[in-house]
Every structure is written in C-alpha cells, then in structure tokens.
Amino acid sequence: MRFFLVLGSGNALLAILLAALAAHRLEASFSALQLRLWDKAVSYQLTHALALLAVALLVQQLPRQRRFRTAGLFFVLGILLFCGSLYLLAATGLEPLRYLTPLGGLCLVAGWTVLCQAALSGE
C-alpha cells in the first residue's frame, strides 16, 4: 500500500511542478507542439497519479486481491513510458522517443482493464 501511496503522491507532486515549469519557464522557449506534448504528459501523469492513490486505498482495503497491485504496476510503467517519452520528446525533439509513447499508452490501458476486471470479479 505504501508503495503506491508514495508513487501516487510523488507523481502528483511532480506533475504539478512540471506544469508550473511549463507555464513559467518553458512557454517562452518551446514551440506550440512542444507545449502540447508537455501538457498532455502532465495531464496523463496527474490522472494516473490519482489512479495510483486509488490503488493504494484498494490494496489496503482488499489486500488479497492481487489484481489491484497488477493494475498499479501497469499505471507506474505507463507513466514512465507514456509521460516520460512525451516529456523527453518535447524537451529534446528526439523522434525515436515516439516509439515508446504507444507502449506506455498500452500499459495505461492494461492498468484500467485489470482494475475493471478486479472490480467485476468481486474477489
């Protein structure tokens, strides 16, 4: 439980800091495309940080349900790959990073799928 609580709150904090960085520092030096990529990364990171906080609560309430942990791990991997690749792509322009973004998106989808399955199974 603590693992997901730390990762969820840490990612929420980081997303807010990165949004502030974009608004106060990067806006002058980034193109419109770079800012859109950055903003998309912030949005998805914050959304999935909240999902990790929900997973932390679910793991605490239903510790035997392993699917919640699996969903949380998919969310963590998705944040790293999806959001991380968008941040790096916006900051560096390295095109090969684009190939990581869909993999991260698949991890986020997998996390929501597993979370939904866990909720439906009622275990």
TrEMBL record:
Keywords per UniProt: Membrane, Transmembrane, Transmembrane helix
One Pfam family cited in the UniProt record for this chain: DUF423
Membrane-topology annotation of the record: Multi-pass membrane protein
TM ranges: 41-59, 71-93, 99-120
InterPro entries: DUF423
GO cellular component: plasma membrane
Membrane as UniProt keyword: yes
Ranges in coiled-coil conformation: none
Domain of life: Bacteria
Compartmental location: Membrane
Family of this protein: Belongs to the UPF0382 family.
Protein name: Uncharacterized membrane protein YgdD, TMEM256/DUF423 family
